[in-house]
Amino acid sequence: MNVNDMKGWLKGKSLYGFFRSFKEKKKDEIRFHTAKLHAALSLTQLAAAIAGFTTSTTTEAQNTNPKSNGETRAGYKGMDSIVASAAALMTTVCAEAAESLGADRTQVESAVNSGLAIINPIDMMAVTATTSTCNVL
């Protein structure tokens, strides 16, 4: 092999610099993959929280049908179920995405269970804020 060919292959870097940049690139790839995994788990938790919140809201709405102005919630009852079903579907899709990125079943199960355990708006806002800070790009 010619010395000029080696310089072209190393792109003007020393051999030490070449291996150091390779190591840093590998670290960045691992960091990026971990961030994507964390984002998928956070999104799974948020989707589960929305599903649980809408399901509990639907149950409460069935117990208290009349509105303050005398109208009933009969027209909205179906919509609550649709939103709860859509959120459950999103939870499933996000959980599968997290598993495809390498999350263990226990991690996914923990994210879903902690999402379903959310019962007040403050916790919902905290999970939403956590999910929104997961910048992957």
Automatic annotation (TrEMBL):
Span of domain VAN3-binding protein-like auxin canalisation: 11-133
Pfam annotation, one family: Auxin_canalis
InterPro entries linked to this entry: VAB (IPR040269), VAN3-bd-like_auxin_canal (IPR008546)
Protein name stated in the entry: VAN3-binding protein-like auxin canalisation domain-containing protein
Taxon lineage: Eukaryota, Viridiplantae, Streptophyta, Embryophyta, Tracheophyta
